[in-house]
Design a protein that fits this description.
It contains 13 helices and 9 strands. Strand 2, helix 2 and strand 3 form a beta-alpha-beta unit. The protein has an 8-stranded parallel beta barrel, surrounded by 8 helices. By secondary structure, it is of the alpha/beta class. The chain starts with 25 loop residues before the first strand and ends in a 7-residue tail after the last helix.
């Protein structure tokens, strides 16, 4: 589907993204609301508003935020709250969760939150769901009020079915929840509802999304070695549904474009150092490029960083466009959802502008 004007049209496909410019597939944004050293969460959230507006102006298809907890460098603990704010500052772009970690929440609460978002922004809300905690074990226990964390992940299909029933308001007669209604929702009259996406970094959600005929989003940006096997499994498992007649898969891609190749390397190195600290139990604000350049990586850390940077498409505009094109061709992804991990908001915003320019997307300044 091609819609260079970027407007919502009656009957527009709620799943398949509009291909614009010379991009091979639809392009979207994954926003982690990162907080850099020397900055604040308030500034990070303002950058998210600026990014959503930029994405809408330049023809990106959707803007998602992801649930994370107890990470000083990430301010996206409450996707529904952030999405409500973004809905108030945009008009056309699809907004969604990439994702809500369903085992952390009661399904009724998520149905209520996203029913409210749908009422705020009819026809442009996506509900992406994951089964991971989005944090460490201790924080997950605090969120779930339980030490039995594996049970939450293993119970995911049941939670998903319950959430779907609440969204559709169709529990059968005799069910304990048949008289409970998620509002805003269908009990108040004819209404749309957010399409459900399943998110994953392995094969579990890929297979489940295929079996249920749901769209699938894979976290290539931190699980690149599993991307093609998971997409293959999704496509092989797919059964047509009322929502989709054929598989539709997007992949999250870490990409950062800069006017200068060296500057792109400096910016992604700061994100790599942030990941080193997170993986070694020392999470903090995203360090500055200067701090990352001065840091002395141990041999083990250096090996991790080299592998991490291999999966980030970075460099000048032309290099990033070539890298994105190659990745899409190798994976057959139906949509690329780009996340730009950098210390400062200006670098992130500039990266999306350059990528949009590289593909000739509409709405240039």
């Amino acid at each position: 589907m091609r819609d260079d004007a970027g407007a919502i049209r009656d009957g527009a496909d709620p799943i398949r993204g509009a291909v614009r410019g010379t991009a091979p597939v639809a392009l979207s944004v994954l926003d982690l609301v990162t907080v850099g050293s020397g900055s604040t969460a308030t500034e990070a959230l303002r950058t998210s508003v600026a990014l959503a507006r930029l994405a809408e102006r330049r023809g990106f298809h959707r803007h998602w935020v992801a649930e994370h907890h107890s990470m000083p460098g990430v301010a996206s603990t409450s996707p529904a709250v952030i999405l409500a704010h973004l809905a108030a500052h945009t008009e056309r772009i699809r907004l969604g969760s990439g994702g809500v970690m369903l085992p952390n929440h009661a399904p009724l609460v998520i149905a209520e939150q996203f029913g409210t978002l749908e009422a705020f922004a009819p026809g442009r809300v996506d509900l992406g769901l994951g089964r991971a905690p989005g944090t460490d074990g201790a924080t997950a226990a605090a969120l779930r009020r339980s030490e039995r964390l594996n049970e939450g992940a293993d119970d995911f299909p049941k939670q998903l079915a319950e959430l779907t029933r609440f969204l559709d308001d169709d529990f059968p007669d005799g069910h304990p929840y048949s008289r409970i209604h998620a509002v805003p929702g269908p009990v108040q009259g004819p209404t749309g509802r957010p399409p459900i996406w399943l998110l994953g970094s392995s094969g579990f959600s890929a297979r489940l999304a295929g079996m249920l005929g749901l769209p699938f989003a894979f976290a290539h940006h931190f699980s690149a070695q599993n991307t093609i096997p998971a997409l293959d499994l999704y496509r092989e498992s797919f059964k047509p549904s009322a929502l989709l007649d054929a598989p539709y898969a997007l992949i999250g891609v870490a990409a950062l474009a800069s006017d200068d190749e060296r500057e792109a390397r400096r910016q992604v190195l700061s994100g790599a150092l942030s990941m080193v600290r997170l993986r070694t139990g020392r999470p903090g604000l995203v360090p500055t490029p200067e701090e990352a350049e001065a840091y002395r990586f141990s041999p083990m850390e250096e090996e991790f960083v080299n592998g991490w940077l291999t999966n980030i498409v970075h460099g000048t505009k032309d290099a990033v466009i070539a890298g994105l094109n190659d990745l899409q061709k190798r994976t057959g992804a139906d949509e690329l959802m780009i996340t730009a991990n950098a210390h400062g908001g200006e670098a992130r915003l500039r990266s999306y502008e350059l990528i949009a320019d590289g593909y000739g997307l509409p709405g240039s300044a």
